[in-house]
Amino acid sequence: MQSTNLAPVRIYGVPMDLGQRRRGVDMGPSAVRYAGLQSKLEALGYTVTDGGNIYAPVVEEIDDDPIDGLAHNVHSIVRVCTDVYHQVRDSLRAGETTIILGGDHSISLGSVSAAADVYPNVGVLWVDAHGDFNTPFTTPSGNVHGMVISSLIGLCPPPLLLRSEPLSASQFAYIGVRDLDSQEKINMSASGAIIRTMRDIDESGMAEIVRGILSAMKDRDAIHVSFDMDSLDPQVAQGVGTPVSGGLTLREAHLLMEMLADDGRVHSLDIVEINPILDTQNRTAQVAVELASSLFGQRIL
Hints:
By secondary structure, the chain is of the alpha/beta class.
């Protein structure tokens, strides 16, 4: 058990799968809860409150008009993300550390916007196989979960702009990227975001990558971690919405979380894209709980 001088933790689930076409990630919050997230954090000395689920409709309930036919379910997604924004903002303002369980990655439109309101100088660590840097005009799929960062930095049209003041791309750092669309590559490279691909990790090692990112973020007041479980190799986490081979190993992911815990500036965490339908015995959710425990201070010694 750690010291009792710890910020209280609040958990929200966002059971939404509207940001992509493959069904099942709406069951992610239940899977992570079943894997024992709350009890694990309480064993580390935290006071944990589960705030329940933020309502998200299923696709059969809605009849949205896409943006130019290229951003599916966008109005319903924005309504859910607006609710996420208000709940997470209130939690952070109350001095809580907030965990948001997805659901697909589009929920981070709300959580990152909230973190930026409470900590205007926030740095955002995007741990993901994908860039999520498409717009309704570049996307090959129309899936909003692939437009989140471009929306947050103001490159997408309304209604995908939750904040009147967009974030700067320089506030974002990627880890684990390995699957990008052609136009997305061009736009990301020119954006000013820190981008560390799997090749970078292979060549330099996770410790050096994380040290470099934290050094680049040394003037940031807080860090929001948005952890897409597809950043992990499918051999580690097979139950994800969009698996891509060649991802992070379990130890690389734990080292990342342990170093972030040592840094001490993480006040909010997304865990997204767990799809129990594609999993075996809830293993991917169990891995998510193990990684969250490392972020919240669990140590080998």
